[in-house]
Amino acid sequence: MTPGVQPLIAGNWKMHGTLAEARALAGAVAAGAKAGAGAGLLVAPPFPFLPAVAAALAGSQVALGAQDCHAAPKGAHTGDVAAAMLREVGATHVILGHSERRAAHGETDAVVQAKAAAAMAAGLIPIVCVGESEAQRLAGEAEAVVRGQLAGSLPPGFAAAGGIIAYEPVWAIGTGRTPTEADIAAIHAALRAVAGPATRLLYGGSVKPGNAKEILALPNVDGALVGGASLVAADFLAIAAAVRPGG
Ligand code: PEP
Fold first, then answer.
1. I want to staple 153 with a disulfide (CB 3.0 to 4.6 A). Which of 1, 109, 224, 231 is the partner?
2. Is residue 1 part of a domain?
3. Maximal CA-CA distance, the chain
C-alpha cells in the first residue's frame, strides 16, 4: 500500500454471466461493501449490463466501470462504444489496454493512449493495463516491457485526471500463477517512478482471497484488478477485506 492513496479493488467481469446474474452479483457486492472500509470497490460488467448494474449499485459505495471504449467521441464505428456513452449510463471508470484486448483486438500502446485520452475527455477515469508475456519475463525483460507500455499508453494529464495503472503479467491472468512478491514489488517500484506518488497502482493476475493479503501489503500496490474471483461476491468481498485498514 502507498500512504495517502486509497486502495481500490476492481472486478473485471469480462464476457461472463446473464443479466439476472449481473444484477444479483452487483446487488451482493453492494450489500457487502462496508461504508468507511479501507478499500474502494468497483465492478466492470459487460456493456449491455451497465444500466442494470448501475441501478443495483445505486446508493452503495461501489463504483461502476466499463471494459473498453473507443478513442473517438462518436462516428461510424460499428460495434464500438464512446466514452461519453459509458458516462451517461453511470460508469465512472473504464479499463483500457487489457492484455486480452491487446492480443485479440490488436490494441497497440498508441491505441490505448488515444482511448485513455478520450476517456479523460468524457470525465471517465482510465484504468490502463500493462504487463509482460511469459517469454518476456523469462528473458528478463519484464520491467523494460512495462516501462515501454507505460510510456506509450499514458496520455498527458493522466495522473492529474486520477488515472489508474494495473500491472497484469499476461501469464498470471486466469492461470492461478502469480509472480513472487519480490517481483511484484520490483515492477510496482518501477511503475511508481514513472507514475508519480499519487497514482493508484493495481496488481492483477490470479488474485484470490488466499493470496490477497500478502499481495496487497506490498509497497506500491494500491489495490487489485480481479478477474475470475470477482464473479463470486464472497470472494471479491474477501479480497477487499484483505486490505489492511489504514493502508
Ligand atoms: C484480469 O483479467 O484482469 C485478471 C486479473 O484475471 P484473473 O484475476 O482471473 O487472473
1. 109
2. no
3. 48
The number of domains in the chain is 1
Q: Is the CB of 205 under 6 A from ligand 1?
A: yes
136 touches ligand 1 (CB under 6 Å): no
Q: What would the pLDDT profile of 86-98 be if each residue is shown by its tens digit?
A: 999 999 999 999 9
Residue 10 contacts residue 42 (beta carbons within 8 Å): yes
Asked whether residue 174 is domain-assigned, the answer is: no
* Per-residue cell: 237: 468481498
Domain that holds residue 108: 79-169+183-222
β partners of residue 130 = 167
- Which of 207, 208, 211, 216 maximizes ligand 1 atoms within 8 Å of its Cβ, making it the mutation to test the pocket? 207
Q: pTM above the 0.85 mark?
A: yes
> What atom of ligand 1 comes closest to residue 100's alpha carbon?
2
Q: What share of the chain is helix, strand, coil (3-state, %, to 5)?
A: 45, 15, 40
43, part of any domain = no
